[in-house]
Amino acid sequence: MAAFSSKASIRSISLPARSHPTTLRVEEELNKIKSWEASSSSKVETICVGLSGLSELYRCIEELLNLPLTQQALAQHQHQKWFNDLLLENSLMYLDICGNTRDAILLMQETIRELQSGLRRIKVGDLSIESIVTTYNCSRRKMRKEIARSLASLKPLGNEIEAFPMLNLDHHLSAVVRVLNETSLITSSIFHSFLLFLSAPMLKPKPSRWSLVSKLVQKGVHELASKGQHENMNELEGVDLALNSLLMHNSSKDIEAPKIKSAQIKLDALDVSMKGLEKGLECLFRHLIQTRVFGLNIISQ
User: Fold this and answer.
1) Domain limits at 145?
2) What is the pLDDT of residue 216?
3) Which pLDDT value is given to residue 193?
């Protein structure tokens, strides 16, 4: 998975043993998700695991913010810049990204289902293959454009903890601020990787690259997999390759039927994957709202 620019500053944290048990649970979840990130890939299943881990992390953050001890301590510093950044501004940014990304995924799901329906009705040599593939590619471009906006809005976060007035905070609040900062950093990193997956370049053949694409297609999916090349493709790239193969061999009755079946299988898998991503985003969205609500409630006290 592509690394975010702030990833180098995300380190395993270890809070003192006298920290509140809830703070220690947040630390455990942070270190779990950092271990996942270090060994993750760009496959949808892996990204879904990351989103699930992030949701669990924010669930623990909710418990931490719900502690009277935490709320009282934060209330005394609600006018500090770090309070606004960690509990209000960053959560709003992540909520916007969640919503925009979910909308883009829903649009992509609709197009996938239309393409699935079209492939079930298609016949070998049917010129409408090019039409339905073009429709899918247009949807991919729209999704990439929307995701590009989200990437642009995802501000790079440096090691902001260094700028916080830690010396003026008591032990518990100092621990809370540290885990909130670490959580914000890891959220940015995972979102960045997730968005990069969704905005992956389209594997669309161009005149200058026909020979290369032709060689890849002629090897066939099974041969690519046997050499480990196909296994490195993510779900979007797999669908792109299958659809390009259909376009190149549309006039061949000997090749077309199995290639239509292969494209259908890959589209089915991508549809399931997109549902998983949507579910992961929905769960994370709810936890992000709750985190922001806690911050707003502290201000209103």
Assistant:
1) 17-200+282-300
2) 46
3) 86
Q: Compute the distance between CA of residue 93 and CA of residue 154 in angstroms, rounded to an integer.
A: 7
The structure tokens 């502290």 sit at 298
Q: CB of 191 within 8 A of CB of 153?
A: no
Q: Which residue has the tokens 């209103």?
A: 300
Instruction: Name the token pair of 166.
Output: 């830690």
Answer yes or no: is pLDDT of 171 > 80: yes
Decide if 135 is inside a domain: yes
Residue 256 in any domain: the answer is: no
Both structure tokens of 142? 């729209």
pTM given for the model: 0.79
Would the pLDDT of 87 be above 60?
yes
Interval 16-57: pLDDT, tens = 445 678 888 998 999 888 888 776 666 788 888 889 999 999
The reply to whether 233 falls in a domain is no
Tell whether 145 is covered by a domain: yes
Cα–Cα–Cα angle for 45, 47, 52, rounded to 5 degrees = 95
**Nearest C-alpha neighbor of 194 from the set 125, 74, 101, 72:** 101
The count of structural domains within the chain is: 1
Tokens at residue 270, please? 């991508």
Say whether 76 sits in a helix, a strand or coil. coil
